[in-house]
Amino acid sequence: MSRGLNKVMIIGHLGRDPEMRYTPSGRPVTTYTVATSRTWNTSDGERHTETEWFNVVTWGNLAEICKQYLTKGQQVYVEGRLQTRRWDDSDGVKHTSVEIVASEMMILGDRRDAVHNNQTGETPAAEDVEDEFPF
């Protein structure tokens, strides 16, 4: 029997503080966004930066940990699976959302940086976020 694989790993900075809520059955769920940036030089030496935003969803104990310890601007490693949700709104408009359902989260970077970013309300600029692993 063949098996599939759906695994995603990102390193980036939180775009906002995590938001936690509870399902009707009382299960915690926390959502947040993570920005990853890559920088490259063109053949004529021009520098380009591209930022990709990911919606992240965590459940259960990991949801509570993310809400308690993560703040806007903080660097994190997130591992999980991609999930696509589709729905129609009240006007009948179709919507699609791709999100990472996280199974692992690791806080990276200097904790003082996260505290400073949170106090000043700053988010790292895309050009300040360098790829640590250029693959």
Structure description:
With 135 residues, the protein is mostly beta strands. The chain has one domain: Nucleic acid-binding proteins (OB fold (Dihydrolipoamide Acetyltransferase, E2P)). Helix content is 15%, strand content 50%. It is built from 2 helices and 6 strands. The chain has a 5-stranded mixed beta barrel with strand order 1-3-4-6-5. A hairpin with a 5-residue loop joins strand 5 (75-88) and strand 6 (94-108). It is globular. The two termini are 31 Å apart. Residues 122-135 have low confidence and may be disordered.
Helical stretch tally:
2
Low-confidence stretches: 122-135
Under CATH, the homologous superfamily reads Nucleic acid-binding proteins
Biggest sheet architecture? 5 strands, mixed, barrel
* Secondary structure tally: strands: 6
CATH architecture: Beta Barrel
Structural class: mainly beta
**Into which percent range does the helicity of residues fall?**
10-25%
Q: Strand order, biggest sheet?
A: 1-3-4-6-5
Number of structurally distinct domains: 1
Between the first and last Cα atoms, what is the distance in angstroms?
A: 31 Å
How much strand content do the residues show? over 45%
Would you list the SSEs in sequence order as H and E?
A: EEEEHEEH
Would you give the CATH topology? OB fold (Dihydrolipoamide Acetyltransferase, E2P)
Overall body shape:
globular
> What value does the Rg take, in angstroms?
17 Å
Determine the mean pLDDT. Answer: 86
CATH class equals: Mainly Beta
